[in-house]
Amino acid sequence: MTDPQQPRLTPLDEWESEAATILDGGDYDAELGLRMARDAIRVSNGELSDAAFHEKYHEAVVAEFGEDARPTEPEGFDE
Predict the structure, then answer these.
(1) What is the per-residue DSSP string for 42-69?
(2) InterPro entries, from UniProt (predicted)?
(3) 3-class DSSP state for residue 38?
């Protein structure tokens, strides 16, 4: 799944605490945002597929926002 020609993304050590600080000020689930960010890096690195990412977070996104209107919905995804 990983492409040796693509550079791996590695988050800076302080990214998570900085992201948590930003997300804590909002009205939405900060932990959900952090989990999705961690897995978005995995998608970028080819360690997790777009479809698996969408499936993994679909129910949590619907619970948090009332709908899953992410533009990343895989073709043929069945709600």
Answers:
(1) HHHTTSS-HHHHHHHHHHHHHHHHSS--
(2) Ferredoxin_N (IPR031604)
(3) helix
